[in-house]
Amino acid sequence: MTGVICVASLGLWLAAGRSSKAQAPAPTPLAAQDTGVYTTAHSSILAAVREFFGIRSTPVQPIAFTHKVHLANGLQCVYCHTGVDEGPDATIPNTNFCMTCHVAIDTTNPEIQKIAAYQSRGENIPWERVYGFEQSAHVKFNHAPHIRAGIDCSTCHGDMTKQTVAVQAVKLDMGYCITCHEQKKVSIDCVTCHY
Amino acid sequence: MQRRDFLKISAASGAVAALEGCGNPDHKLIQFIPEEDLIPGIATWKPSVCTLCQSACGTQVRVMQGDAEVVRNGQLGLIKMGLAKKIEGNPAHPVSHGKLCPRGHAALQVTYHPDRIKGPMAVTGQRGSGEYQLISWDEALKRLQAQLGPLATAKQKGALLFLTAPLIGQRRTIVEGFAQAFGGSPVEFELFDRSVLEEANLQSFGIAAMPTIDLSHSNYVISFGADFLGTWNSPVAQSVGYGAMRERPGQRGKFVQFETRVSQTGANADEWIACPPGMEGAIALSLAHVILGDKLRPANAAGALGTAIDGWSTGLTEYAPEKTAAQAGISAATITRIAHESASNGPAVVLIGDLATAQTNGLASALAVNALNMLLGSAGKPGGIEFSPTAVAGGATASGRGANGSIRDVVQLINSSVPKALLLYGANPVFATPEAWQVKALLEKVPFIASFGSFVDETSILADLILPDSSPLESWMDGSPEAGTTRMIVNVAPPAMNPIHETRSMPDVLLTIAQQTGGDAAKALPWKSYEDAVKASLAQYQSVKGGSVTATSADDFWSKVQAAGGWWSAEAEPAAIRLGETGTTIRTTTAQFDGDPEQYPFYFLPFPSQMFYDGSLANLPWMQEAPDPMSSAMWGSWVEVNPATAQKLGIAQADLIEVASQHGTVRAPAMISPGIAPNAVAMPIGQGHEHYTRYASGRGANPIAILAPMSTENGALAWGATRVKISKVGVGRLALFGGSFREDEIDREPR
Q1: A60–chain B Cβ distance below 8 A for any pair
Q2: Could you give the ipTM of this predicted complex?
Q3: For residue B48, what are the β-bridge partners?
Q4: Which of A14, A43, A173 would best serve as a mutation to test chain B binding (most B beta carbons within 10 A)?
Q5: Phi, psi (5° rounding) for residue B730?
Q6: Which residue in B21, B26, B32 is closest to A124 by CB distance?
Q7: Which CATH number fits domain B196-391: 3.40.50.2300, 3.40.228.10, 3.90.1150.10, 3.90.550.10?
Q8: Is B1 part of the contact surface with chain A (CB cutoff 8 Å)?
Q9: How crowded is the C-beta side of B321, counted as CA atoms within 13 Å?
Q10: A52 has pLDDT over 80
Q11: Is A59 on the interface with B (CB under 8 A)?
Q12: Which is more confidently placed, A28 or B475?
């Protein structure tokens, strides 16, 4: 059995090698040109395997944003993460939002100056995603009902007052969700989250 | 190891081989700062208006935050913005009643089309080469001003030609005002000319407008060729009315269709009767003859409309069923029976359109049908034909809309004195006129051509300067449809989303130029923006009682009307008809056809396509993919041939046919169809584009190109008046949804 799997993998690997040789790396698109290839597939087998097993590399953020400092200064979660009680996503605010305060606060800090630079270029800060589920799980998490039910942000996101750059402090596997759902007597039907 | 992990590893190894990633995975696009404050994941429905035909159906658009790939200042990046995701009908709208035709649904693809012009462009190569370079809006406006400014000062009549699709509302007002201020005239061009019916209704009823048919109260519908469930007049409103008629318990009405080729509307008829092209008016008068002769209706019921027709007062003896039957190949008994049925099962309504009015005797036929309606008692009555009150209020009492015969005026005009500048917006006459008219050569004479369209097509490729309008979903919408409802109505809708590309609303561009030019131009167009112009035009409806929106102030009214997608009266208020005074006597002359019947034995029947309409929607891939309702053909053209004819000529399904008129040839695969007379062949209109995005360019054949330059009595193109011959020239390909091809064999490749 293992032998078959190895051969299969080898075959696929060879095929992968051949096909990636046959196609040159995608050229930098010209202004307003898209590549015309649209698929939800992954860019390599390795990427597919990693997603399947839920292996994710540690995100590297463009700005060393520290939750600890902001929360210590009295900011509430929802002040920046607006819409969390209205829709599925907890938004990350855009550059302009950060600058409403930081146009005056801590302007000599090189990280803040980076934000100012983004704003002057009209760019949003390219944050890397910290929380999420692998695509193959087909799970859609909706923040709003959880917030409305009075669940504290720290329940799933950990104690942000101790975090600088955000990391996944709580292991958010399906068991974690189901445990809480069972305790609170909320639906554990598959379709509640997987659709 | 755990079973689960084992299965996971096995599955992973058997996983699909290396694949290309999504669109642009390795090149991290920069993200622009969003310009809107949106809650992600929550959809809102916004009202809008469909502009893909003249019906102006009210729509609602589902808008949600998404990431769009856009170019800003020459840089490609992502931006979070509200994006239109789906278009549906607006349930409260008096025309669409919450429904849409397939074209309305596909309008979404106009906004997101990959070949949409994304910013102003100036031609770099030769005119017509299609080689353009992107320029800034400042540069584009400067160039336009430089060309048009002198025309405003010179005020030379005919110096500017503004060629557009038919427009309504303030968009039309601004275009008209602009054209006149710069020494020119606006010319509206549409292939499916409404001018024949508008002229007929002007003469008969004093209203130059398309009819609004009260099908939901009809009990007997006779249609002469009008594709009223598909493409003719206001198809969505008519389909809703037709559905209401058919669903009436115990009284579902009867529908009779007379035409030469079974259209998708005709396929719904209870009785479908083949009739040669050009004989529709004669058959209508034959029905009138029976009604008059058998005293089924009062003799003077048709009043002045009847007496205007030659022979009416003496009982239309020329149109006795036996005589008409012999000419038309219909049995006299059928004509007599239908006449009796229609007179005894009122309300009965008679419609005429499409090929029947695209004949040299189209106007006379339409007048005959009007007289028949009057005789049956359905003119201006429930269950019959009525007229929109806003069409009348908007000035539809004069024959205002230019016929596409006005293109012929344009042709003559350019021949006598070439305009200095040509502005294009939504009209593609190089595609949609017969080559015999040589429109392309004539337009090329104009020294400066600018286009406001969103796509490069056969006409706009001649432009020296392109200033792309935003798509309808990204634009303010306003105006009243000419038909579809007898309620007072004006559509008003703000943009459903911000422009994704660097496009600008065309009326706003005109206003900018006018303001910069100053003088009379600025006076003629005093608004700061198109939005202001729309707001100003609405004020008149605020005080009207019984409207859909009540408000406490002008601002309150403005915001409520926008939220609703328009303003309409709660009750139907059909316009009062003024019966025509007896004037000119109408004779239904025999229709003339181009081409000797010996050499060109077949009537040539181009027909409007449900998907492409007049060809302007062939660029939308959903419309290419959508199977034709009668044949299920996709992604191509075809020639419909009667089976007996095919057998005689040795033509099999999908054989490549050459169709030749006296003015040109086209080639397309044969579709053997029992639904067409043996002495006729038909082709769908819409394909055969030379330049029209990757989906339509070089695909199929254009039947309009080979049409003869025949006219209706009022100068419109008689596109049903050409005769052709056909011959097999090879083997073609037909992609039928019904299974003649494997799915992966259908040729959808961009050309």
Answers
A1: no
A2: 0.74
A3: B59
A4: A43
A5: 165, -155
A6: B32
A7: 3.40.228.10
A8: no
A9: 18
A10: no
A11: no
A12: B475
